[in-house]
Design goal:
Layout: E1 2-9, E2 12-21, E3 35-47, H1 49-63, E4 66-71, H2 75-83, E5 92-93, E6 95-101, E7 108-114, H3 115-120, E8 139-140, H4 144-147, H5 149-152
Parallel strand pairs: 2-3, 3-4, 4-5
Antiparallel strand pairs: 1-2, 6-7, 6-8
Bound molecules: zinc ion (ZN).
């Protein structure tokens, strides 16, 4: 089951998607969006292959009439960004959720990371995080060179802000 919430923030329309993107999700109402649109994908837990097709169709539609960005991409959506080159269409990925784990106590946490922050460091590391339970420096629970691949496609996109 996929639900969404639409918020207007200034000129931007933010669409927060929650749940599972599969054959039961009907994205057609979203093809009516226009202007500057951000999809918040933090709540997308799973994407099936039918869901991927639906999504790509939506992106194709919106590319013609909107400026689209993806924000807070969940690990499930990052997986698709990494696997399928046209999953994002022409959208910029502004930020994503990075899964961290603590090597000492095993605690897990998802942290919101800005794409620009990662690209500034060369694109292969995520910002340091300390474990809330034992203060050990946490590690990305996926291989960075695998999890962060989608950012490499974006290098030439929007100019990267300098520190
Ligand atoms: Zn810990």
């Amino acid at each position: 089951m996929l639900r969404w919430q639409v918020l207007k923030v200034g000129l931007r329309t933010i669409v927060a998607l929650n749940g599972v993107l599969d054959e039961n999700a009907d994205l057609r109402p979203l093809t009516e969006l226009s202007g500057e649109v951000s999809f918040d994908l933090s709540g997308v837990r799973r994407i099936s292959s039918t869901g991927v097709r639906e999504w790509i169709e939506l992106m194709r539609h919106l590319d013609r009439r909107c400026r689209v960005s993806l924000v807070a991409c969940s690990p499930a959506s990052v997986t698709q960004l990494n696997l399928i080159s046209n999953f994002r269409g022409r959208a910029q990925v502004e930020s994503f959720m990075a899964p961290y784990e603590c090597p000492t106590c095993g605690a897990e946490r998802e942290v919101l990371v800005d794409s620009v922050t990662v690209l500034r460091t060369g694109g292969l590391s995520v910002p340091p995080q300390s474990c809330g339970d034992c203060a050990t420096p946490m590690e990305l629970s996926e291989l960075p060179e695998r999890y962060l691949v989608f950012l490499m496609d974006q290098r030439g996109g929007r100019p990267v802000a300098r520190a």
